[in-house]
Amino acid sequence: MTPRQPNTSFDQLLSQLSTRLINSEHAETQTCIAEAIAAFGAYVDADRCYVFEFSEDISSMSNTHEWVRDGQSAHIDDLQGVTSGDLPYFFEQMRRSHQFITNDVGQLPANAENEKAEFQRESIKSVICIGLVANNKLLGFVGCDMVHDTYQWSEEDIRHLSLVANMIANTLEREQTYQKLIETQRQLEEANSKLQALATIDGLTGIANRRALDEALEKEVKRAKRQRTGIAVLLIDIDHFKSFNDAYGHLKGDEALKQVADALATIMQRSTDFVARYGGEEFAVIMSTDSAWQALRKANEILDAVENLDITHERSDTDPYLTVSIGGYFEVPKADAEVAGTIQQLLNNADMGLYQAKDDGRNCIRFY
Ligand SMILES: Nc1nc2c(ncn2[C@@H]2O[C@H](COP(=O)(O)OP(=O)(O)OP(=O)(O)O)[C@@H](O)[C@H]2O)c(=O)[nH]1
């Protein structure tokens, strides 16, 4: 075949494709690359035109885009993860000169026997590959095969394929930067949600902490006002916990706190229930409910559940087992009630109930 004459329409086509690529969204980018290699393939009357990307250290390459003339076989599937050990001469040429051009693969030097064998396997007679270089980094290459006859690659062909290569290299670089940005953004979001979770979870017991309780109270009070429903707060305090620590040690004390927290979380499972560690050995429960009786029933369940944990507490003046006292308060907030004031009232009154429960001998429930 003879080299063709300079072709201005190809330049125009490239210029159009490159304008589209510059303004393209991620999805369109791949189509544009496919169109660019198809345009070049058709222009030089090639049998196959393709893009390969190298691994970071240029030790392997994979075929990412392929255009084949009608009737020619596609090779993209069997050209994945090709290593420099498979084609050492080719990799060496690409690394050194960023191109690999041969008019007749039969004339390749003796040390290119692997390459010759591979080209013969694919029935290739002439090959041109131009490196995709962006920011001085070799990202891959764009290439063309002639299958039927050998072909004399012209200066014009090389210039055109270099233009295509330039365009694809810049696009790939932009895509890689975009992917890195997306990945960084994903990592940041993940770190943020972990931080958010850490900031609202009590490290020892794994249930919500005081900060999360404050947020939940605000949300629940607003909802109760909006929906005209009631809201109950229970404050649950472990009895004689100081003497428990003194008798069994701080670690056993920690273990007991975790067991009580687990028991609370097991009982309060509705989506509108909320359990938090309120202070050292004190827990809080928020319930959306229409009746104080329902709140009282839950408080009784909690009292029983803690007793049933059977945590020995020989030094307790109340019971030889770990027990809790519970203070409760129920209210249907008025539609015009001030949120902060309502929250304060819920907590203060539940606290008054707790104070009463302690005063009445502990291991009991008092509603204010
Ligand atoms: N092991 C352990 N102990 C804690 C933790 N936080 C608070 N405490 C202990 O809880 C105890 C609370 O003591 P007090 O406030 O005197 O209450 P109490 O002994 O339970 O007495 P009453 O509530 O009146 O029955 C203190 O000894 C604290 O050290 C914790 O995270 N781990």
UniProtKB/TrEMBL annotation:
The molecular function GO annotations come to: diguanylate cyclase activity
Cross-referenced PANTHER family: DIGUANYLATE CYCLASE DGCM-RELATED, REGULATORY COMPONENTS OF SENSORY TRANSDUCTION SYSTEM
- The scientific name of the source species is Idiomarina aquatica
Coiled coil recorded as keyword: yes
Reactions the enzyme catalyzes: 2 GTP = 3',3'-c-di-GMP + 2 diphosphate
| NCBIfam families assigned to the protein according to its UniProt record, in alphabetical order | GGDEF
* Enzyme Commission code(s) on record: 2.7.7.65
State any GO CC term.
Answer: plasma membrane
Q: Which positions fall inside the GGDEF domain? A: 229-368
Residue ranges the record marks as coiled coil: 174-227
Keyword Coiled coil included in the entry's annotation:
yes
For this entry, the protein name equals diguanylate cyclase
Query: What's the source species' lineage?
Result: Bacteria, Pseudomonadati, Pseudomonadota, Gammaproteobacteria, Alteromonadales
Cofactors demanded by this protein: Mg(2+)
